[in-house]
Write a structure and sequence with these properties.
mainly alpha; Four Helix Bundle (Hemerythrin (Met), subunit A); 6 helices
């Protein structure tokens, strides 16, 4: 695959996951909706990494680490947001964290964090447009 084809792959996959994130929220599967939001950002960050650095993506899931490897210039708020969204990945995967995330994932908590994910998604798509 060419560099552009790899970028399109990651963006297309992120778009599909974005739709799944919305559907999960609408069906009140709040913690899974946030988990999918993490995947959306992870895939977009990997697309940015390919655009800026190399076609061999880092095989990690920590959003802040991927963004650093992609040479993104983040402000403190974005760093905090990426750290928070990364926690949704861990919480959904590991049983000992699941109970606590179930309790946190109220409709308002989820809605607020999905707005953050949407904002970061829009920003990352803008970064990709400028590549």
């Amino acid at each position: 695959m060419t560099k552009d084809e790899i970028i399109v792959y990651w963006v297309t996959s992120a778009d599909q996951d974005y739709q799944t994130m919305i559907h999960l929220y609408e069906s009140k599967d709040y913690h899974w909706s946030l988990f999918m939001g993490h995947l959306v950002l992870e895939k977009l960050l990997k697309a940015v990494y390919v655009a800026r650095v190399d076609t061999e993506i880092p095989r990690i899931h920590d959003l802040l680490r991927i963004s650093e490897k992609a040479a993104l210039n983040l402000n403190d708020k974005q760093k905090d947001q990426l750290d928070l969204v990364s926690s949704f990945n861990i919480a959904a995967r590991y049983p000992d964290y699941k109970h606590s995330i179930y309790q946190k994932c109220t409709p308002s908590f989820t809605k607020e964090n999905l707005m953050t994910i949407k904002e970061l998604r829009t920003w990352l798509l803008g970064v990709l447009e400028k590549k």
